[in-house]
Amino acid sequence: MAARPDLVVLDVELPDLSGREVCRRLKAAPETATVPILMLSGVFVDPSDRSQALEDGSDAYLTKPVTVRELVATARALLRTVRAERRSREYQTAEAALRRRVAQSKFMLDVARGSSGLVRGVVGWTDLASPGAPARIAELAADPLLKGLRPMLQDIDDTNWILLPAVQPAL
Questions:
Q1: Three-state SS for 60?
Q2: Pairing with 123, which of 23, 82, 145, 157 sits 20 to 30 Å away (CA)?
Q3: How confident is the model at residue 163 (pLDDT cuts 50, 70, 90)?
Q4: pLDDT tens, 100-155?
Q5: End-to-end Cα distance, the chain
Q6: CA distances from 17 to 10, 12, 13, 21, 84 (A)
Q7: Which residues, in sequence order, are bridge partners of residue 149?
Q8: What are phi and psi of 42, to 5 degrees?
Q9: SS3 state at 58
Q10: What is the b/e burial string over 102-123, where b = at least 16 CB atoms within 10 angstroms of the residue's CB?
Q11: What gap in Å lies between CA 145 and CA 40, rounded to an integer?
Q12: Which DSSP helix (H) or strand (E) runs through 22?
């Protein structure tokens, strides 16, 4: 597949292979597993047919005749769901990275405490744009061995990031 589609609209009744089999194959392939599939049928209209298609991996099932409005509304709803799931995964990935960085800062503070004075201070990491940044900063700042925090700049494209409203509470 040259380009990954945003949505597949698939008829159940195809000439060479059933639409349900195409659906199963698309959902089994890692590169298309998360692409939403909207199945259509004018022949298989019983609730059991709809249930089977959903169990085979279809994300929605419409019976023909279908209005343009219903088809478009269903497609848009599926695309909204995909976008929300993608944002959720991105958020979870970012939060996991943030937790690792905060854990690294806490670990270094523990190392400093156990170093018998060899390590006199720690500069930790935090994401200043994170919604929980002020609380994390307050927690880390309560340790007298914390000497400063470095913002996580790796993924910041905006050179004026420090001026963003989301960063202000952390400053």
A1: strand
A2: 157
A3: confident
A4: 888 888 899 999 999 998 999 999 887 777 777 788 888 888 999 999 887 766 56
A5: 47
A6: 12, 9, 8, 7, 32
A7: 124
A8: -105, -10
A9: coil
A10: beebbebbeebeeeeeeeeebe
A11: 64
A12: helix 19-28
Amino acid 2: pLDDT: 64
Q: For residue 38, list its beta bridge partners.
A: 9, 60
Residue 170 Cα to chain centre, angstroms: 24
What sign for the dihedral angle of Cα 91, 92, 95, 101? negative
Round to whole Å and give the CA distance between 126 and 155.
Answer: 13
Q: Which H/E stretch holds residue 149?
A: strand 146-151
- Within 29-157, residue ranges assigned H as helices are 47-55, 68-113, 133-141
